[in-house]
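Lab notebook, bench 4. We co-purified these components, and the gel suggests they stay together. Before we commit to crystallization screens, I want a quick structural picture of the whole thing.
Request: model the full complex, all chains together.
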Amino acid sequence: MQDRPRLTQTQVNEELLWPVFSFKRRHALAFIPPLILLMGGVIAVTILIYQGLWVTGLQRPAFWGFFIVNFVFWIGVSHAGTMISSILRLTQAEWKRPITRAAEVMTVFALITSLLHPVIHAGRPWRIIYWLLPYDFARGVWPDVRSPLVWDPIAITTYLTGSILFVFTALIPDFALIRDQSTGMRKKIYSSLALGWRGTPRQWKLQGIFGILMSALILPVFVSVHSIVSWDFAVSVVPAWHVTVYAPYFVIGAVHSGVSMVLTLMALMRWIFKLENYIWEDHFDAVGRLLIFIATLWLFFFFLDFAFSFYTREEQELAVMQRRLFEWPFNAITVIMIMTSYVIPIPLWLSKRVRRNIPLMFWTSILVNIGMWLERYFLIIPAIERKNELTFLWSNYVPSLIESLVVLASFGMVALLLLLFAKVVPLVPAWEAKEGIVFREDVQIGEVIVPGIIKETEEDKAW
Amino acid sequence: MANVKWGMVIDVDKCSGCQACVIACASENNIPINLDRDFKENRSIAWIRVERYWEGEYPNVKARFLPVLCQHCGNAPCEPVCPVYATFHNDQGMNIQVYNRCVGTRYCANNCPYHARFFNYRRPTWPESYNNYLNPDVTVRDRGIMEKCSFCVQRINAATRIAKRTGNDDSIAALQTACAQACPTDALVFGNLNNPDSQVAQMFDDDRSYVLQESLGTQPNVRYLKQVDEDAHASEVAVAH
Amino acid sequence: MQNGDQEAVVIPGPPATHEDITEELIHVSRQTGSRMKKAIILSGILSLFGFIGIAMQMANGIDDHTKWNFYAVIYFYIFSVTMGIPMAGIGLRFARAQWRRPTSRSAELFAIAGPVNLIFFIPILMVAPPIEGRNSLWMDWALAPWFPDIIMMLLLVLTGLAFLYVSLLPDFAAVRDHGSGFTQRLASRLSRGWSGSPKEWSLHKSALGILGAFYITAYAMTHLVLSSDFAMTLVPGWKDPIFPAFHAITGLQMGAALLIVTMYLLRRLGGLGRYFELEQFWGYSRLLLALSLFWFYFWWCAFILFWYARLPHEQGVIALFVSGDFAVENILARPQFLMFAGAISFSFILPFLILMWNILRRSIVWPTVVGLIVLIGGFFDRMRLYANSWSIDQVGGHGLDHLPTVNAPGLPDLLVFIGMVSSVLFLYLLISRLVGFVSVWETREALLLRFIKPWGVGYAHVVVKPE
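Here is the predicted assembly.
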């Protein structure tokens, strides 16, 4: 058992709040790579909107490409926040403490990033931006709710709203902490953000209740958002897209990808912001164990999709599988995808020593996300390149530089937003860290001292 | 004119692959001229196209031609997926594309099993001299907008107006789409399926008629007549495509 | 650990010491009263009815699988319910939910239903039509589906039994050390010299982990193989990759329901109220609510695709499993629709409407009521799936163009049902005479993991988290 540090409250304040009160070099330098990526993306999008979609590699019949793959990927990543936060909150797992805020906020930023993609990939972005709002802007015509492309923004904005509420409520005690430690303009801003938080027992109780309620309510939203995104593909008549297993397959893939992204984030946070006292090897261990289960469940659904592609032995679907497994570049993509999503990380993670080795966890989590991005590409693109029987029009999609720049920029955007967020608020919730310290109780059983947690329970039930 | 149902029959046996229909459609409907670049990029726009499939080994190679256009499906997969109602079914059995409503999500194109929908990746441009050549009855589509065969809806509308003005149905009966009009072998026959005297209604249920990708259940208003294979015995009608 | 001597605060003591638990679980709960004896004898006799039922069915002939439709319904119903229950115990152990401790033995014990399922599976294998002409996962393998399906069933059953045995080892030792009579001698044989050393416990924990993980995998794969080979491939045009997942998760839902009902019975009839308390019922009711929502979710994933895309061969599948007709009129007269209506009402609508209220979740009676409702709903669901798919005589082809006439169940089917349920009950009660319904070592472990200490003006509970 690792020797866990005993921190005082002042120490916690200092170690968690320094990015808010000062702008140290570590933090500043961390901005540079995302800014570069984002700049590339801004230029690419400007060219795209000004010139038209011909600057991409999209053609016929592959009308959707990198932008949609990236859209699905970032929606997927956004599922991690809910997974970690809600489920760990509901099961009262102790190891959630340092990671809930980073995960929840990553959800919000991932959703914002992904929402940009349907806008830029549309033929007329300046129209789609408002014609999908629930109002008859143009000649009394409302959006068509039969279309999965209308279900998408409904689901995503519901999820975004819920996540923002979730994040904000958990932020209130920390806003108050910063308010109490600052002066001048900063104090004014944080006072309004803190909504008058005084830390009374009643306020804590309400906050706890809201956390539990919101966790329970957001779980169905989280399952339905990625299911709805998967139905963009599944309810179509395109043979290899029209697969009933897509909804849970996408959801579990999203959780896999997102929780791995949380791992990456944990390692980066710990390094950039010097959070060694808050993010321990135990957390990586716990997340790693969760990921073994999630990844295996993902493999099961992948197997279902894969096996049943051959089931009816229909020519059209076999042609798509042929492309996926045997034709360049998909043969390589398939192999890389399986290796990086499952075959390399999971056997490694079975070993406790690997799970407690932070650099290894960081690199394997990045591998997983490479694999999961490729998985979206594997699912989406070959099916429309080899669509239906009229083989005269089958062709191959080759992404262009503009699309690649936008994909890279999306990573830059999320990273940049996270770094900006770290400037405003501590990434590790200070109140959760303090709660963990206060409620910790080491217990001696026999010869061993094991950590324990103090919990409340009903008065009439002692055991 | 609610009693009209527009349909088309394409006799594959008569099609020689000359592509007169393609040119006629392009002229009639202000379709941008497809350059080399557009074909290489697979972005060429041809509301009706002639697909060519090779059969057999040298020296017994045969080319089979299949003109494919929007099938104006009764159970169209492209219609429910448009988020902005830019495509819908009208009461004359046609699938209508509304250019100024389209935002270019291209879901309809993905969902069309006949690859009959086209997207304007570029703003179409024509040489200066072409301006007098454009058909004033047809909108020119800008970039970012989907388009497809409309069964020459401008001709349908014109014929309808004439019929209303003159009080008789001659213009409707004489109506031809550009492709059907241009076809030298009369392989394309267009008309009102609800009129039992029209040629298209009589050919629609012919023994040789078939539907492309029937298993999808799209109920197209376009049917094809099977090719008669000259190598088969006279008593058999072999199916070549 | 200070327990009794406090100055200002009276801290309640634990309800039991290690000795109390051992005494209660080894002696008291294993006493076989007359009621228990009668139950064992009766269920033993009724089990034989199952074999009579099989014999009667065989006499009807094994060539026509449409006559065996209700046999398939009953078999897959019992299979789904019983093989899913150990999953609840295993899953909750992996999730480190401490409240499950008193219930895990009663869940694991259902692994003895495995051999029953194996025996009754044999007629299914004999009657099912061969693979040629129908879609299948096995391509054209001549040995399929018999060979892979038997292997998967064997794997699942043996893993369940192995898991049960490993979990029972410390309790066999407890019976050996504290029991008497025939059971004490049997337990001492079975305990294989267990001495409770740290090394043994560590091995025990690893073995449970590995076997548990294996069981979960075997469970998922067996459901995949059985549901696709014996349901999906029989319906022309039915391609539904989510169906095995639906089958597995609804099996889990039915298992959780039966477990709640079992807990209630053990509480009322077995006098084990101290162990099956509100906390256990609350925990399982939340699990049941989540699984009922999953019933709807997995069903909807298939339905929305078939409904939206309007592909002709999938319309046939909707007609077979939902609407009962290709047109919608006269829907209430269609058996397929009635089966579907029963399934969705009892598996999803009622459980959801009841369990969405926390007051009802946090009770003992209401989760039991919902458990019974879900068991009924599960039967409707398996009926909807198997009675219809096994009624199709032409199993090849691309789509379903006419709905089959569904043969009604007969006396042999009723006998088989009674036989299967009774044999599971018989074995369950029999083995409980050896080791009781509650796990001694888990309950004693729980004592080590919770303490009470003074905290402020009252007391606080300290929960030890060794991992």
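The mean pLDDT of chain C is 88. Worth comparing against the SEC data before the next meeting. The CA atoms of residues 304 and 446 of chain C lie 46 Å apart.
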